[in-house]
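discrete fold record:
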Amino acid sequence: MILYVETNFLMSIAKGQDELAENFLQNTPTSVCLVIPSICYVESLATLEQEDKYNQDFIRRLDIQVNEAGMDKTSQNAKLVVNYLQKANLSFLEHNNDIEKRFYIAFNQLVSKAEEIPLTTEIIHGSLDKNILKKHLMDKLILECIVHHARLHPNEIKVFLSSNSKEFGRREVIEVLRDTGIQYFNKTQKFLGWLQSQSN
């Protein structure tokens, strides 16, 4: 069986939002062939970099508030603010380290386990020809990569797992997936339940 995953699979593991996905990636059954569009690696690294910029901006703003409150020599509340914000700053940085650590563990596991779908000129043109996901070009390319790969494996059971149901759960996208023989799941739990039912 082919299991297609994309950027959100990796990011949900990194952010600790999907323990089942993390466990599944660590203990992928031999009957499941993980497949990911190569552009998802680039997108996930860009997402991590962008979030790091947001986090650095947040830390800078916290530091400004700590400095401001620290200049108030008469208010007991100002001392509390300094204390709480310094603790919050430390916890925030430690949490970011947790995310980054999980990200690179999951990233390396995917690189070693998953087959990559390279982005080709044919896939880019196929994506441009489709009249869906117009405002979501990266998702459109990811979808076209998956559909292109699925057409090369007509006799395989094919599943696409993505928590991005806002885009990939749209009726027109589901139709494209179904036409290519791909079943869509938006939660790891639902996919694992279905997988279990297949072996019974």
